[in-house]
Design a protein that fits this description.
Layout: H1 2-8, H2 18-40, H3 43-70, E1 82-83, H4 88-101, E2 108-112, E3 119-125, E4 128-134, H5 135-138, H6 142-157, H7 160-170, H8 173-180, H9 187-220, H10 227-235, H11 240-247, H12 251-255
Parallel strand pairs: 1-2, 2-4
Antiparallel strand pairs: 3-4
Helix pairs in contact: 2-3, 2-8, 2-9, 3-7, 4-6, 6-9, 6-10, 7-9, 8-9, 10-11
């Protein structure tokens, strides 16, 4: 009963703002990388390297924006997606929630091996992306399945797959540019610039983790609220500590005092 009361108190989360969050990450990343370069680069190398440090995240953001614009068509007119032994109820749910998220229908729905509940979105190609989940997913309560699918469609809605590719490109860049700028500098200066560059690099995995929080927030922003998602975290965790970890960092959970 205490758990039910706490879950019902979660309510409905605010809609996430993924572009704002990605933009803030790139501003912080570009600023730290440019600072690391400007502090130790030889004077005649500063200007081009600072420009490169700022332009890399800006161009990445622009590329992601134009990719998103080209992929943002409301679903419709798409041939039936491919699937293998998926229940009609789940297929109908996928079609309904894809339309709700304003993303195209997945090109494929696949069953993953394994006994635990897992769900993924990925493998974009010329036909589109795919949704994958284990058999255990189909055994969950309908409202929990909806919350999990909304989380996965949020990744497609927020363009997190190309964002991961951008992140892999950006991750080593600050350290590489910091090392290039160390030309003849002392150990203290070198340590400082590498610390700043490392901070910029560590922003990348933090941003990827935040993408998971934003996908959860999207699922929790719908009429059913955050309750089904929170119940899944708790009931499908092996121990309370793991459930608490799954809830931490989510805006809807911190507001309710989890």
């Amino acid at each position: 009963p205490d758990l039910d009361r706490k879950i019902s108190a979660l309510g409905r989360a605010a809609a996430p703002r993924p572009w704002v969050e990605k933009g803030k990450f790139l501003l912080a990343y570009g600023g730290l990388t440019a600072t690391a370069v400007a502090m130790n680069a030889p004077f005649d190398h500063i200007a081009p390297m600072v420009v490169a440090a700022i332009m890399a995240p800006m161009l990445s953001f622009m590329g992601l924006f134009f990719y998103a614009s080209s992929q943002s068509a409301v679903p419709g007119g798409r041939a039936a997606f491919k699937h293998v032994r998926i229940s009609a109820d789940t297929l109908a749910m996928i079609a309904r929630l894809a339309a709700e998220a304003k993303v195209p229908l997945p090109a494929r729905v696949r069953i993953l091996a394994g006994d635990e509940v897992q769900a993924q979105v990925g493998a974009r190609d010329d036909e589109g992306y795919e949704i994958r989940f284990t058999r255990a997913f189909e055994e969950l309560r309908p409202e929990i399945r909806e919350a999990i699918l909304r989380h996965e469609f949020a990744h497609e809605r927020h363009h997190d797959m190309p964002w991961q590719i951008v992140s892999m490109f950006l991750a080593p860049l600050p350290i590489m540019m910091g090392l290039i700028s160390l030309d003849g500098k002392g150990p203290l200066e070198s340590a400082l610039v590498l610390a700043i560059a490392a901070t910029a690099t560590l922003l990348v995995p933090t941003s990827l983790q935040h993408s998971e929080y934003l996908a959860d927030q999207y699922a929790a922003s719908k009429a059913e609220g955050a309750g089904p998602l929170a119940r899944f975290f708790i009931e499908n965790s092996e121990n309370p500590a793991r459930a608490a970890s799954a809830l931490s960092g989510r805006e809807f959970a911190s507001e309710a005092g989890w």
